[in-house]
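Model: You mentioned two targets. I'll fold them one after the other.
Researcher: Yes, keep them separate.
Model: Target one:
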Amino acid sequence: MDEDVRWVQRLQNFQKAFHRLKTALAIASPDEVQRAGMIQFFEMSFELGWNVLKDYLEAQGFSDVSSPRTALKKAFQEGLISNGRGWLKGLDDRNLTSHTYDELTASKVETLIREEYYQLFEELSHTMDLKK
């Protein structure tokens, strides 16, 4: 498959997951199940987001971007994302939520999704739409 096409297809999947996250965030006071769904949409959006960056960077000729951390750092260096630290923090939280679930962590991550990660995903969606 052409790498150029791959990153565009991945972007479309990212935007679908991000749309689902937006829908979940519209619930002002989610119950436990709704919060778990929101966190799942965050995890999917994050995973697809860093992969969009990886695929795009590879299409641009970069070969050293196979891990999330290296892809995010290179994307920041190349101006694809403006908040590298925020994305790296998101990586840590994505890893935490995908391996552990307790209500205190879930509540904390919900707040971070609403206050920080949503904006990161929105910026990525807009930036990559301009690259198509």
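Model: Target two:
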Amino acid sequence: MDLSLQVFVTVVEKGNFTRAAEELNMTQPAVSQYIQALERTMDAKLLERTNKYVRLTRAGEIVFHHAQDILGKYTRMHTLVDDLLHRAGGDLSISASYTFGEYVLPHVLAHLRDEYPLIKPKIQIGNTAEVAEMILNHQADIGIVEGEYHHDKLFIEAFAEDDLFIIAPNAERYAGRDTISLSELSDEAWIVRESGSGTRYVTEQMFTKWGYQPEHKVEFGSTQLIKESVEAGLGVTLLSHWAVRKEIALGTLLMLQPDGERVRRHFSLITQGTPYHTRAAEIFLDMLRLNKAFPPRYM
């Protein structure tokens, strides 16, 4: 591996030469020499440098993008070879969208730790679009998203079903009901996730299917904030049953089917379009496919 690429990426990520030198256990002059050598090789200036900041040039942006890809593939190559010789272990980078990442994934990770303590998962949470971008950029080994997603360069596989319900406050007007018509909610504000979220996509699909468009819509980027807002009486929402298990059990929220019909989507895993995965990744993928250690369904 060209060490100058590793030094270059570290300088960019850390934002200056001093922090990069500390991260790499090098002297600052040595870091500067590697950057200069890379710039000579590329025959282009890659960084704008001052005492306060390091900024990528246009050429630097190109090199940084491809250097991340090269370093990711180099690490992956070593891990795959190491897996042939040793027990499953090492780092496993997982990027998951909010519903699965916050409400199901912790249970799966606890099972993974019990069965394979040498595997060290690193978790990043984002919406569906952000998760897919991380897989494309080799910043995560496995992505987990909600609902439909398509990309020619990625392998996408549905592995579990997810039911969503209208979530309402535990108020008298909803008490004792299992279903509700969207038309009955015309006076309510709808609290929705941000664009790019799998839950937002399903919510908009539901509105379209029933020919309904709420007059009042509030957008929040956090499922927890949405739940708290519904409990406070700010409005209603559509959420996965996984996300409200505790609140339903405590009786602070109510779960209703729209017009008595199921709103259903899939959880899907996303990986690079390659047959080669680390042993740690294969083990985790098998756990997902078998729905191992998922928390009990409320319904």
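Researcher: Noted. Anything on target two?
Model: The first helix runs from residue 3 to 14.
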